[in-house]
Amino acid sequence: MEERELGTLLCTRRNKRIYVRGETLTKLYDHALMPKPKVIKEAWVQSVVETTGLNVPKVRLIYPVGEDWAVDFDYIAGESLLDRLQAHPERTKEYIDQLIALQLKVHEASCVGLPDMKEKFNKKISALGRVSDPAKHIEATLRYELHVALDKMPAHRKLCHGDFLPDNILFDAQGEPHIFDWAHASLGNGSADAAHTYLQLIIEGHKDWAEMYLPAYAAAAGVEVSYIRSWFPMVAATMLDKTDDVAVIDHLKELIQSIEAEQ
User: Fold this and answer.
1) Both 83 and 25 in a single domain?
2) Which residue, 98, 178, 186, 193, could crosslink 117 as a Cys pair with Cβ 3.0–4.6 Å?
3) What angle do CA 17, 120, 239 make, to 5 degrees?
4) How many CB atoms lie within 10 A of CB 131?
5) Same domain membership, residue 83 and residue 33
6) For the purposes of burial, counting CB atoms within 10 Å of the CB of 124, is it exposed (0-12), middle (13-18) or buried (19 or more)?
7) What is the dihedral of CA 77, 81, 87, 90, to 10 degrees?
8) CA nearest 78: which of 9, 11, 176, 10?
């Protein structure tokens, strides 16, 4: 199949272009950023999550398009939770509560076989000593402190999305929510997953949503806000490789360095 046969271009992301044709959504990955093993791994993770019974788009096919690789999923038309938040600011609390309820449903789902969150975090922290961009480099002493702090955190085995945000939740024509983009899913601590959601909302300029989300999630999950915040340095370290924005990098590094004050 050639790229022109994939359908209508829906959007372009950093490492992929997304097309729609009929009932099929196709993600075409840039081979320079997403070689074949990474594409297959991402599709495999999504396939594992399918077994939980959660509403997620099913993987249908993996195939080459020139030098790139494509993955076909079920296409689900609808409105995202982000669309609703932006269109109806008067209903923000209702929608943030929906976000939290869905996230807790994910954390309660039974799932086996996915990567361990702590192992993923440790690998990402270690990699910060080898990055070519000096702005993202973390010195050995600070990396050690992050590893030690991570080791002390409870090692849960909850299903965690890893990028649980309003634009990854879509409501179909019947009003049923579907959860997208499971590339960063792992088994680990739900509070770390919540920390990522909070920090990413801040980064994306939704501070009001983030500040509403954090205490509401803590109350619903039965944990202290301070406990979720204790995950910030480690979670921030895992987010450094996803941005080239100088202000965002500075913000994340400030959070990472706060681990020194906690030791």
Assistant:
1) no
2) 186
3) 55
4) 13
5) no
6) middle
7) 150
8) 176
Read off the pLDDT band of 14 (50, 70, 90).
confident
| Cα 171 from Cα 38, distance rounded (Å) | 28
- Residue 99 has what pLDDT? 98
Question: In total, how many domains does the chain have?
Answer: 2
Which pTM value belongs to this model?
0.93
Instruction: Clarify whether residues 127 and 101 are in a common domain.
Output: yes
Classify residue 221 by its DSSP letter.
H
N residues, the chain: 263
- Which of 74, 108, 124 terminates a domain? The answer is 74
Domain's final residue, options 43, 74, 105: 74
Residue at token pair 């099929």: 24
With a CB cutoff of 8 Å and minimum separation 6, the contacts of 56 are 46, 49, 50, 178, 179, 180, 182
Give the separation between CA 12 and CA 7, rounded to whole angstroms: 14
Q: What is the pLDDT of residues 52-79, one digit of tens each?
A: 999 999 999 999 999 999 999 999 999 9
